[in-house]
Amino acid sequence: MSNDETTPGPRASRRPDKPRKRRRGLKITLGVLLVLLLATGGTLYWLYSQLDGNIKGVDINKALGEDRPEKLPTSGQNLLVLGSDSRAGAENEELGGGGAVSGARSDTAMVVHIPEGRSKAVAVSIPRDTLVTRPECVKDDGSTVAGKERVMFNSVYAQVGPACVVKTVEKMSGVRVDHYLEINFAGFKDLVDAIGGVTVDVPQDIDDKSSGLHLTAGPQKLNGTESLAYVRTRHGIGDGSDLGRIGLQQQFLMALLSEVKSQDLLGSPTNSYKIAKSATESLTTDSSLASLTSLAEFARSMNGVDPASMETIMLPVAYDKIDPNRVIAAEPQAGQLWKAIREDATIPEDAKKSPATGG
Cα–Cα distance between 330 and 18 in angstroms, integer? Predict the structure, then answer.
């Protein structure tokens, strides 16, 4: 197997059971946006000196140079949000599936588009098993990595790094990425524990021996370890592929944001600090957002965006004809979706339908 590819995941089903009318796609890595929610309204200003140094920054603009899509005057704001998943080591082994895997991967990825006026938002998830063309990229050490066709999307982060993921997304979509946010999964676990757990309505019994997750259908309050297993589970739902779990991740994100919104952060400085500490310790952003001041300013500019009204879409994909374990962007749907985002226009309903569903 080529060094450019990660180990193949479970075989994707060619024939989904039946179409499902559910919103798909928002990857759980929007947990990083909790930092923005907490900063809104000045809640965290008094903590800046203690928390500011926790945030790591990546100079995306310097790494990518001028070979990028044009920034249109009415294109709103676009964020690339990644969840990096290193399962090596004792801490991650306790979270399920660790020990045998080295390095970090972009286990989840999405483009969050905030239209001009910032009254609503849409998030497009990119399945990790999508085959893409990786452009020529420059690594952190200054060496150049040649471009290559038909590489798995999550291999780009593992092989070349975050700046190349941004470049890959920009090349495949034509969408200019304004900001980059990344959270690691171990930090996500601590974040959930810091807010006291999250209640989700489990859609069906889950018995996943791989992750150790065993849940009965119905409302369940999950702690950090259980939440991480819930959003990671592949064998517990659908056909065992990445596509099958996207609905769970979207559902959990909404429950997580609702939980944070319902908490009295102003009335509990200690709890606010615990949440902010967990979030910032696991957060990497582009250099223009790599401070609590910058995050707070960006958050205040999005005060009108209601998470409950956020539209979530999975990038339309189809099973690859050469390797049915993989998916490719489905056309013309994917092209129509990216065009609408570039132009800050209404997304056509047909552009939201994916031939591959993971059912």
Answer: 19
**E strands, 163-217, where?**
179-184, 198-202, 206-208, 213-215
Give the β-pairing of 148-152 and 131-134.
antiparallel
Q: Which residue has the higher pLDDT, 190 or 167?
A: 167
Can you tell me the distance from the alpha carbon of 233 to that of 238, in angstroms, rounded to the nearest whole number?
A: 10
The predicted-structure confidence for 83-101, as pLDDT tens digits, reads as follows 776 544 444 444 444 433 3
**Tokens coding 321:** 């004809």
Q: How far apart are CA 158 and CA 44, in angstroms?
A: 33
Q: Determine the Cα–Cα distance for residues 97 and 159; give it in Å rounded to an integer.
A: 21
Residue 57 Cα to chain centre, angstroms: 17
Supply the pTM of this predicted model.
0.78
CB atoms within 10 A of CB 39: 25
**Do 168 and 132 touch, CB atoms closer than 8 A?**
yes
Q: What is the pLDDT of residues 146-167, one digit of tens each?
A: 999 999 998 999 899 999 999 9
